[in-house]
């Protein structure tokens, strides 16, 4: 097996959503950094593909995420400026607003209002009739309300990953694609050894950002991760008001039974993307997940569409299987590896992590430098693992 002689300042395992951001951050510091991935930059086998991701501030999951979302918006704007060197290059982030719908006492509506009040965020409230007048595609139940966050946006997910890898490489990062990390360990000297099917590497520091494969790379940590298969669908509808040029926003709707569906404006020939955020099928091996169309998941989404959208006919144009890596409480795990101050990881992003990629990438590199960010401590392992053992 090849023993590579370079001792890197930092190795990043996995350059998907979070790893590509960490790679860029490390390269910006002038570190000699190597990214290793079992696929290539911006592939469709992990959790960072499917055209679009929503970015929002009024965070229903917990108000602690609001300051991180504020920073994420700034960082994506900055990244976009560097990436978009000509008008022909598609933007990474597109502002559409986000309409969140549900009963006033639903988790989403209560959570959005709570975060908005605590952090003084601008949110507009609409009745079902007001929503239908403005956005006739929606069929809204009388017991629902809509909360509109005007600054929310979507990110072009593959372009974002590719842009971060691109910027890292321009700053001197090396990348090793199609290489599977088998294991890693820290030598007595403190140097990290990373063993792959393309040879062995050494580094002073290590970032582990392996998404759905995190349990394999962090086998000694009881993080309680569960990987869920999630199906993304794109539909053509027999109307046009859902198109982005007609001002259609992103949306998320919580049904009365707690199930949540979301969608995006139609941005190209694939049609309108509509998916389920709730539920999902547990899977064991991310590498062997069945990627063919799951009829039951499609049926749930089309049933949602029939109940909540006004259209005559729809046609499924495209579908793609993706993965949520759930933590037990739905909050991310981002911390130093216990016992090793030169090894950090991000795992269990629980289906809502992409928007924070630049923030988490920066945080991982800062943790390696011994810098602690109090606003990210709620994502750490020490207290939460202790709590879960009580
Ligand atoms: C359908 C869907 C919709 C979503 N919607 C949103 C949304 O609207 N907003 C939002 O913020 N988030 C959303 N998310 C969540 C978000 O996309 C993920 O949290 C995020 O992309 C995960 O990034 P990651 O870096 O952890 O994983 P990935 O991007 O999958 O990266 C992990 C990388 O590690 C590599 N790897 C793994 N093991 C190894 C190994 N042993 N050796 C080498 N390389 C390895 C993989 O090849 C992969 O490239 C959604 C997720 C899905 C699936």
Short description:
This protein is of the alpha/beta class.
List the total number of helices.
Answer: 9
Query: Which regions contain 5 or more consecutive residues with pLDDT less than 50?
Result: none
Most strands sheet: 9 strands, mixed
Q: What is the assigned CATH homologous superfamily of the largest domain?
A: FAD/NAD(P)-binding domain
- What's the pLDDT, averaged over the residues? 97
**Domain tally:** 2
Distance between the termini: 45 Å
Task: Please explain how this structure is put together.
The protein has 390 residues and is α/β, with parallel strands linked by helices. It folds into 2 domains: 173 residues, FAD/NAD(P)-binding domain; 154 residues, 2-Layer Sandwich (D-Amino Acid Oxidase, Chain A, domain 2), CATH 3.30.9.10. It contains 9 helices and 22 strands. Helix 1 runs parallel beside helix 5. Flavin-adenine dinucleotide (FAD) binds next to helix 1, strand 4, strand 15 and strand 20. The site of flavin-adenine dinucleotide has 36 residues, from helix 1, strand 4, strand 15 and strand 20.
Reconstruct the topology from this structure.
Blueprint: E1 3-8, E2 10-13, H1 17-28, E3 33-36, E4 52-55, H2 65-83, E5 93-95, E6 98-102, H3 107-119, E7 124-126, H4 128-134, E8 145-149, E9 153-156, H5 157-170, E10 174-176, E11 181-186, E12 192-196, E13 199-203, E14 206-208, H6 214-217, E15 226-237, E16 250-254, E17 260-263, E18 272-276, E19 281-283, H7 295-308, E20 314-326, E21 333-337, E22 340-347, H8 357-368, H9 382-389
Parallel strand pairs: 1-13, 2-3, 2-14, 3-10, 6-16, 14-22
Antiparallel strand pairs: 4-9, 5-9, 6-8, 7-8, 11-12, 12-13, 15-18, 15-19, 15-20, 16-17, 17-18, 21-22
């Amino acid at each position: 097996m090849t023993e590579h002689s370079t001792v890197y300042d930092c190795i990043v395992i996995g350059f998907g959503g979070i790893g590509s951001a960490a790679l860029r951050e490390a390269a910006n510091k002038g570190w000699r950094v190597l990214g290793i991935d079992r696929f290539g930059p911006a592939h469709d086998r992990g959790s960072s593909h499917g055209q679009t991701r929503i970015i929002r501030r009024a965070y229903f999951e917990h108000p602690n995420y609001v300051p991180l979302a504020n920073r994420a918006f700034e960082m994506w704007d900055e990244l976009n400026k560097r990436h978009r060197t000509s008008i022909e290059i598609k933007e990474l982030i597109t502002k559409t607003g986000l309409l969140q719908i549900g009963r006033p006492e639903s988790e989403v509506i209560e959570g959005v209002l709570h975060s908005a009040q605590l952090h003084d965020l601008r949110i507009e409230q609409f009745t079902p009739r007001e929503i239908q007048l403005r956005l006739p595609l929606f069929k809204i139940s009388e017991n629902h309300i809509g909360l509109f966050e005007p600054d929310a946006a979507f990110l072009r997910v593959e372009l974002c990953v590719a842009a971060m890898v691109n910027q890292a490489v321009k700053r001197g990062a090396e990348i090793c694609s199609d290489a599977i990390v088998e294991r890693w360990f820290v030598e007595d000297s403190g140097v990290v050894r990373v063993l792959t099917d393309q040879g062995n590497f050494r580094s002073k520091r290590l970032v582990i950002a392996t998404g759905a494969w995190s349990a394999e790379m962090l086998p000694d940590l009881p993080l309680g991760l569960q990987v869920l298969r999630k199906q993304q669908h794109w539909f053509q509808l027999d109307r046009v008001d859902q198109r982005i040029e007609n001002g259609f926003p992103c949306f998320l709707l919580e049904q009365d039974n707690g199930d949540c569906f979301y969608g995006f404006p139609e941005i190209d020939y694939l049609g309108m993307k509509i998916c389920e955020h709730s539920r999902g099928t547990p899977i064991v091996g991310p590498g062997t997940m069945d990627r063919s169309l799951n009829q039951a998941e499609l049926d749930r989404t089309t049933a949602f569409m029939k109940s909540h959208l006004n259209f005559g006919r729809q046609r499924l144009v495209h579908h793609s299987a993706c993965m949520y890596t759930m933590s037990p409480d739905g909050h991310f795990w981002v911390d130093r590896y216990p016992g090793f101050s030169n090894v950090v990881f991000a795992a269990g992003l629980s289906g809502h992590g992409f928007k924070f990629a630049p923030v988490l990438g920066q945080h991982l590199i800062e943790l390696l430098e011994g810098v602690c960010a109090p606003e990210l401590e709620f994502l750490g392992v020490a207290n939460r693992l202790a709590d879960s053992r009580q």
